[in-house]
């Protein structure tokens, strides 16, 4: 899935977060959004993930301009195509590992049966085999981050948006999470990461620096 920003500007109150940003994120690649704290990495990630409307410019998905989409169209994109990995893991502590991986619930709030084969595969790939019935509260921080990635694997997401996915992790878990993101990209997923982790950025195929040049337009380069 091709995700593009063209001439995107975000202004919050009297402050311009960034202006005239252009970035292209392709299937099968990891793209890192980098720069110092406060430069707008997470804000740009949210624009690309249709979580936030830009003040100006276009966000395109497979060539289709999305900034005029209704809420129903954005929800359809999130439900069928996108997965999100948040810095705070986005895990529900008082639910099971299995439910957190599948999030199988109908619009009426009823629990739906999971595809056990897909669930087992997702947990196996993320180093959490046999823990489907365990409460997520029992997991470590690194395990919770891997559980968030298991959710993307279970969903077979076309695009994964990750906000500082290695922040606060120990070196072993940083390496594990980086490898999982690499595997997703190699399988064809579009992986877009906001990060200040230099080692993670180096592992990406492309980087987009919001701090260079100074006017905030940013640059893209091969990783």
Automatic annotation (TrEMBL):
Keyword Mitochondrion: no
Keywords of the record: ATP-binding, Nucleotide-binding
All residue ranges annotated as the ABC transporter domain in the record: 3-222
GO terms under cellular component: plasma membrane
GO MF annotations in UniProt: ATP binding; ATP hydrolysis activity; transmembrane transporter activity
Keyword match Metal-binding: no
Domain of life: Bacteria
InterPro entries associated with the record: AAA+_ATPase, ABC_transporter-like_ATP-bd, ABC_transporter-like_CS, ABC_transpr_LolD-like, P-loop_NTPase
Cited Pfam families: ABC_tran
Official protein name in the record: Putative ABC transport system ATP-binding protein
Organism: Micromonospora eburnea
Organism lineage: Bacteria, Bacillati, Actinomycetota, Actinomycetes, Micromonosporales
């Amino acid at each position: 899935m091709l995700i593009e920003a063209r001439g995107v500007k975000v202004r919050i109150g009297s402050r311009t977060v960034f202006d005239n940003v252009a970035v292209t994120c392709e299937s099968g690649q990891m793209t890192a959004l980098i720069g110092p704290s406060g430069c707008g990495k997470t804000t740009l990630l949210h624009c690309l993930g249709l979580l936030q409307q830009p003040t100006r410019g276009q966000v395109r998905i497979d060539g289709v301009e999305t900034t005029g989409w209704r809420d129903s169209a954005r929800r359809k994109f999130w439900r069928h195509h996108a997965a999100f990995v948040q810095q705070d893991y986005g895990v529900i502590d008082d639910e099971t590992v299995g439910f957190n991986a599948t999030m199988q619930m109908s619009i009426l709030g009823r629990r739906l049966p999971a595809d056990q084969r897909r669930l087992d595969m997702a947990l196996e790939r993320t180093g959490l085999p046999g823990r489907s019935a365990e409460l997520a509260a029992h997991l470590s921080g690194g395990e919770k981050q891997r559980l968030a990635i298991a959710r993307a694997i279970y969903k077979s997401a076309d695009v994964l948006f990750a906000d500082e996915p290695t922040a606060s992790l120990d070196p072993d878990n940083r390496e594990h999470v980086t490898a999982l993101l690499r595997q997703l990209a190699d399988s064809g997923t579009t992986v877009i990461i906001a990060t200040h982790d230099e080692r993670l950025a180096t592992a990406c195929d492309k980087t987009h620096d919001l701090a260079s040049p100074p006017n905030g337009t940013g640059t893209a380069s091969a990783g």
